[in-house]
Amino acid sequence: MASKLPPLASFPPATLRKGIPPAEWDACLDAWISSSSAYLSSAQETFEKACEDDTSLSSFLISFFREFSRFSSGDSLLRSEKAAQLRRQAFLLTHRALTSSSIPSSLLGWSFLSDVCRCFLRSAHLQKLLSSVWRRNGDQLEAQLQAVKASFVKRLDSADPGESDDDLHQIAALIHSSPDAAFYIMSGSDFLDSLCVAYINANAGRQLRQTLVTITYFGLTGLTRGEKPKYSLLSDHIYVLKANAEQVQKKNPSSPSLLSDLVTNTPFIPKLRDSTSESEGARIGNLLNALESFRQPGIARPRRPAKRSTSKGKGKAIENGHDGDMHIHRMSKITHVQDLFPNLGSGFVAKLLDEYNDDVETVTANLLDDSLPAHLREADRSEELTPPTSSPTHLSPPSPPRSPSPYLPTRRTAFDNDAFDRLAIRPSQLHRGKHHATTTADALLRDRSRPSKAAILAALATFDPDDDERDDTYDAADVGGTVDKADAESGTDEAGRQRRTAGGGAPDGVDPAVEEALFRAYAADAALFGRGAQVRRGAPRARLRQATGWSDEAIEGWAVMLGRDARRLRRLEERFGDAGLAGGRRAQEEVPRTAWRAEEDEEEGEEEGAGEAAGGRGGRGGGGGRSGRGGGGRGRGRGRGAGGRGGSAAEPADEKGTQVARQRKEANKGSRANHNRRDQRARKMARGGFAG
Fold first, then answer.
1. What pLDDT does residue 320 have?
2. C-alpha angle with apex 87: 85 to 89, nearest 5 degrees?
3. DSSP assignments along 331-374, one per residue
4. Could you tell me which of 58, 60, 65, 47 has the C-alpha nearest to residue 4?
5. What CA–CA distance (Å, rounded) separates 666 from 689?
6. Which of 378, 410, 438 is the last residue of a domain?
7. Are residues 45 and 166 in the same domain?
8. Given this model, what pLDDT does residue 119 score?
9. What is the extent of the structural domain holding 551?
């Protein structure tokens, strides 16, 4: 079966391809394509047998990828569609040969693998293929790379490192496509040290330095790829580059180093940031931050502008390789070329302009030198531009309008099927404009049948919205700060005060007899103090009003205040209760305590404005006890006269009482400002006390 497979001729070099006519070259490509198809369609056993016995397949693949990886852009023989088809089939043959059970030894050479990588630099399938080949034949490949590495180190350390430029270009493609090859080449620091030495060599040209930076970039980024990234080796190499860069900067701060060129002209730092794992991210990240300081904008190489396609796929139809609707400027260029070469047709000149980007001088120079490409040398030079076969679309008559729809759209409103819609309204009911066109504003104002504005305002003036409102003076929500001014004023005089205190009256200004009657009624039945109409019209309430002389609102307010003050209720129980009564009065007067208390002192400090000078140290009957501002002192003795201690904050500062009063007044202003007066008065009013 192996004899049935046709042999494959080696691919000719560029020097031989130039002498082959285009027709014969197309025949050669057809022969290679058909032979490659035969190899690809053969059985696996037949293919492996052909690889072992026949070396034509290996020779063809090695020569083809060597020439294809080095051809220049001007070589039009390798830019045709047949050449691209042969390139795809050559890759398939290589893939099948490297995945077979017995791989030809010639196909395991590093130079062949590098040529394949240069032809398919971005192919993910090639990277997987190289990984599988390295797992199966790693020892053989490492032996070759070891010799290549030693050769590179020796040539890079020499006085003229530029001799290894071509081989460095070749090995760079293999390092880029194979992480295993990158790891083996970058193992140890000898190869990286040689790269640093060659970069700062005086004989190193610009092209060599770019190659060294490219190999360093591919080698270091290759350590982060693969099944097991080599982050520790990567960190060691970064430290080596950093030390070399620092040494170069010490000698000459403006001199570039391999690290500065790598950081400035390659995406080395962003690439490592993206490919670093989380576990190694912190350590590698700190190193990358330190590398930012080695960036030198002065050595940055200009980037090639990216070609942006402006075509949206909506161009006009191409006829004869150019627009059917020729632009007037294009026609002027064709006329200019035909003035110099009258024997050339307009169609052939249009093809020349397409080939050389509408550059008339370039077209003229190539015609004079007879250096046209092969496909133009064989073209018909008398070809003329043919007029377009179809008329332009923008000059064609417009299409006829669409036929109207047989059904008109319908609208539905709120007035459908009303009297107007049914035409059931009388003509006399129709009018245009105002219905009463003769009516004016003066006529409306003279109309006496309607009520006047003055009558409406008079009615509103006589209306009192509070007629049906009850008296809410003693509502539960409003009782807190209410004071009965009549009772308060009746007890302000000295006679009234003496009359209340002499009989052991209540200190809040209420007559003891009245308070006793109120308390006994409250203790007997608290419902007697309710606010309902039935309670107010009842006989018990009438008797209570007669006994106290108070109104219903005052009686109800007293009960509300008593319910809010538990201490007052307890005091009234002790005074008027059955257990503590003796002849209708308590046998013993309530004796207030005289010991000083901080809380009481705060309360008393607001009341002792005038001090004890006015009241003196008299007894209980002579105005002792607690009084308002300037009303008297503390009254600790029994009838000792009118003089005594006291003071006011507004009196002269040389008196002792004035200083004491000022100290008490300012005691708690630092922490609670001057809110003691307000809080104390609110407490007194809540207990039902009265001012006076």
1. 45
2. 75
3. HHHHHHHHHH-TTS-HHHHHHHHHHTTT-HHHHHHHHHHT---H
4. 47
5. 26
6. 378
7. no
8. 87
9. 512-578
